[in-house]
């Protein structure tokens, strides 16, 4: 599955089924640019087992505010719509893969 950009309007719909890793980011954020290729590699490794959704906090302040996003990048994991936790800052591929695999079992 490709990485999807999600708006405030589509957020709840997006997180309702399966495992969804949400990246809260902004185009001006240096660390956000650093994690983008890591997320692309994770998407390729997991071959559709997980949805990776990107929420631009500048364009979608409602969703960012709802979850109290204060620092970016912040990654949140949802399983069938349930918030399973968040991770702030750039993380290596192996760590992100371990986080997601924990929720796939």
Automatic annotation (TrEMBL):
GO biological process: cell redox homeostasis
All copies of domain Thioredoxin, residue ranges: 1-105
Pfam families: Thioredoxin
Gene3D superfamilies: Glutaredoxin (3.40.30.10)
Site features described as Deprotonates C-terminal active site Cys, chain residue numbers: 23
Keywords, sorted A to Z: Disulfide bond, Electron transport, Redox-active center, Transport
Catalytic residues (UniProt): 29, 32
Cysteine pairs bridged by disulfides in the record: 29-32
Marked site: Contributes to redox potential value: 30-31
Keyword Flavoprotein: no
GO molecular function: protein-disulfide reductase activity
One cellular-component annotation, GO: cytosol
Organism superkingdom: Bacteria
NCBIfam families named among the record's database cross-references: thioredoxin
Similarity section: Belongs to the thioredoxin family.
Protein name, as recorded: Thioredoxin
Lineage, uppermost ranks: Bacteria, Bacillati, Bacillota, Bacilli, Bacillales
Name of the encoding gene: trxA
């Amino acid at each position: 599955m490709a990485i999807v950009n999600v708006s405030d309007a589509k957020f709840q719909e997006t997180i309702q089924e399966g495992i969804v890793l949400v990246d809260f980011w902004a185009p001006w954020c240096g660390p956000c640019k650093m994690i983008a290729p890591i997320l692309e590699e994770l998407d390729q490794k997991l071959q559709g087992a997980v949805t990776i959704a990107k929420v631009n906090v500048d364009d979608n302040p409602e969703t960012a505010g709802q979850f109290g996003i204060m620092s970016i990048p912040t990654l949140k994991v949802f399983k069938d719509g349930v918030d399973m936790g968040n991770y702030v800052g750039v993380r290596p591929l192996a760590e992100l893969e371990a986080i997601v695999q924990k929720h796939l079992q």
